Amino acid sequence: MGNIKEQKLRKLKKTYTGGSLFALIFLGVVIFATFAATLIVFGVYVVDSKVRDEYDSLERDKEISDLANRDHIVVDHDLNILEEFGDNTCDLKNGGIVDLIGLATTAEEEAREHLKEYHNINIGVELDSPEYSQIIVYPDTQLPVIRPNKRGLMRIDPNMIGPILEMIREKAGHAPMNGKALVNIPYWISVAQTDETDLICKAEFSFSVREVFVIGILSIVIVALTVTLLIFMLVFLIKAISRRKQMNEVFYMDEITENHNWLWFIRSAEEELTRKKNALKKYAVLDIVFVNYRNFCVCHSLKEGNEMLKSIDEKIQKCIKDKNGICAHHSAAHFAAMLQYTDRDDLEKFVKQMVSELEKVNSDHKFNFWVGIDRIGEARDENGKAIKKRTSVDIEKAYNNAGAARSTLSGNESAIAFFDEKMVEEQKWIDTINENQDKALENEEFLVYYQPKYDPRTNKLKGAEALIRWNSPQYGLISPGRFIPLFEENGFITKIDHYMLKHVAQAQKKWLDAGYACVPVSVNVSRAHFIEEDLAEQIRDIVDEAGTPHNLVEIELTESAFFDDKDALIRTIRRLKDYGFTVSMDDFGSGYSSLNSLKEMPLDVLKLDAEFFRHGDPDGRGQIVVSEAIRLAKKLDMQTVAEGVEVKDQVDFLAEEGCDMIQGFYFAKPMPGDEYEQKLSEG
Ligand code: C2E
Ligand code: MG
Ligand code: MG
After folding, report:
1. pTM attached to this predicted model
2. Is 646 in the pocket of ligand 1 (CB under 6 A)?
3. Lowest mean pLDDT among 208-212, 252-256, 305-309, 474-478
4. Alpha carbon nearest to ligand 1 atom 11, residue
5. What is the DSSP letter of 427?
6. Domains of the chain: residue spans and CATH
């Protein structure tokens, strides 16, 4: 979907959720890591410092007789007990103390196996690390003995803290040595006494009430902090999700209908069309216009107009529901809809039915609707083979096509129109014309052709009509039917009429000066020109500039011009006649001819439309109309010209009825200026 707003929303949503999720995970990890690290550091620090204290006091006390108060044994390096005191439970006779120091040189794995095999003890011991203290486990007591490392530092391998604490917990029932402590956990500690002997003395981890209190508070604070932060993040995430939902609702809501808007339509239509299961379904995209919207707002109020749009939106939704349709308010009086269909006739019937429902949306009024329809066929490749799914869908283009079809509609009735490729060609042509018209005029690409008018009784040249042709370097010779209606629409026609009048006046002057028997040449003047108050003066000035006598120029007005401001038209005709120009009514009888206009307009010539002579006249009714029209014109003192006469019978009939001139292929087709000049020169 080529919609910038939509793309921006998608990006925003991605960063919005993605960002908050990332932040949440990151914060969670940081908090957890901080918590765990704090506990580990704290635990290691506490255990290390306690052991250190014990060791230091033993080092200090080993020579002192006070030591005798502690359970201890003194061993030589062969682990023979040299001295023994107190209620110690180190039974060195049955298996004795495991000489882990001796094993220190063997591989760690071997040491572990040794412990397991001979002493049924599962414990990881870092034996040969110079960095950490050694931990020796005596199988009978299963209390650990901690020996400082080679550098004399008391640092326990963090991996060992778990097993040590585990054992400590098991032996927690031992008689406390420190009566004041809240928690006393016994273990053994080994200190080199002399070079030959080691002192293995009973020690204990003891925690005072204050220490337990501080540790407890610290742990509670850390846990509370972690939990608070996690709750905060959870709330933040829930809020972000709900805000995203609200954002979606606002973004895709139409503020008039309070229902879906155009962006929602694009997104939903694309989703629907690109679903695999819909690949072989056919869709129609509709541009529905509430024709009376502006008038309704003017006559009532904008608020009521918008209320009406809301009701229309609801009605459309209801109508297309069974066709798996979606719809949205596009802009002003326009609605977009998309629905499934099976064949064109059914679709047409359905849309007509929907329109008749919409017409009844308000019980007080009968509204009109125009509907343009573009169709999206099954998903197929260039060779017509069915493919799995539609990959590229341009829903905006389809809606635009539907709009192009709808723009061909006019009038005061509801109507529907289908888009087809001819419309694309037509639009391209309109663009070409719009782009090239000015340059073409500048380059004199417009040519004046002349179609002679003959007296049917004498076959003499009595006049001619100037007809435009466009000699385009790109498209060749183009007939006026292809571009005059477009010029009339875009206003360029006034320039063309001036151009033609100027060229005709100049040519007439040239031929007059050449001594030819010139006849009046009529020039078509579009109705768009007649809104100009000084049209008669403009025409007079152009002809005067060429120096052409006014009686050699005739002005043709098309019948449709007579529907505009009648008084202004009559004034212009009068002034033209005052200046000596002949004025004729072109295409009389082609449309809604009003005999009234004949009565009111002081015209000189009535040109009977070619339609009278086009399809034959089997029952003779056409002849009656033509002969009566000629009679009427004569009575009103007007000359008659019959256009589009191609066969001799028609010429004879018109001659008999007293028609003054014939302009038709029977006598001559429109011809270039030099050919017409040739005719003039032949007399
Ligand atoms: P129009 O003014 O009614 O011109 C008569 C049209 O009928 C001319 O078509 C002419 O070629 C055609 N015609 C004449 N006799 C016969 C016949 O026997 N058989 C057939 N089949 N056609 C015949 P053309 O030249 O294509 O012009 C079409 C229309 O374009 C004109 O209708 C006129 O309304 C407009 N037009 C042409 N040139 C100009 C111009 O310079 N200015 C303006 N405003 N309109 C022009
Ligand atoms: Mg004409
Ligand atoms: Mg005509």
Report:
1. 0.59
2. yes
3. 208-212
4. 670
5. H
6. 38-220 (no CATH), 262-419 (3.30.70.270), 429-681 (3.20.20.450)
